[in-house]
Design brief:
This protein is α+β, with helices and mostly antiparallel strands. It contains 5 helices and 4 strands, in the order ααββααββα. It has helices at about 1-10, 15-35, 50-60, 65-70, 90-115, and strands at about 35-40, 45, 75, 85-90. The strands form 2 sheets. Strands 1-2 form a two-stranded antiparallel ribbon. Strands 3-4 form a two-stranded antiparallel sheet. A hairpin with a 6-residue loop joins strand 3 and strand 4. The model has no long low-confidence stretch (mean pLDDT about 95).
Length: about 120
């Protein structure tokens, strides 16, 4: 099946480098989906197993700590002070953040693929 997909991508003239990037990005989405969280006594989300995080970060060209922060905290501008404030997320919020990140990446890949084909 994979060989057929690769052959069709050649027919569509998708360069090998872009195919590699596409498959790596989709693999990263799958690894992101394998990230799970626990909650500390303070109610803060913590990643249970670092391996999926590390694989996803590597495939996306990110530092694992940056990817972890993206899923376990929120930054916003304080309306009173106008400064950037970071807030740690709960376990449930981190799961939602993880799912939103995976969905966004997948959506962007799908849009790129459609634009490339058309």
């Amino acid at each position: 099946m994979f060989a057929i997909l690769k052959r069709q991508m050649k027919v569509l003239e998708i360069p090998d480098a872009e195919q590699t990037f596409l498959f790596g990005t989709l693999a990263a989405v799958l690894h992101i989906g394998n990230i799970t969280f626990t909650e500390s006594a303070e109610g803060v989300a913590r990643i249970t197993e670092r391996r999926p995080l590390e694989f996803a970060a590597m495939l996306l060209g990110l530092f694992p700590g940056d990817l972890e922060m993206a899923m376990t905290s929120r930054k916003f501008i304080s309306p009173k002070r106008g400064s950037i404030v970071a807030r740690k997320l709960t376990r449930e919020q981190a799961f939602s953040s993880r799912d939103a990140l995976a969905k966004t990446i997948y959506s962007k890949v799908f849009a790129w693929l459609l634009a490339t084909i058309n």
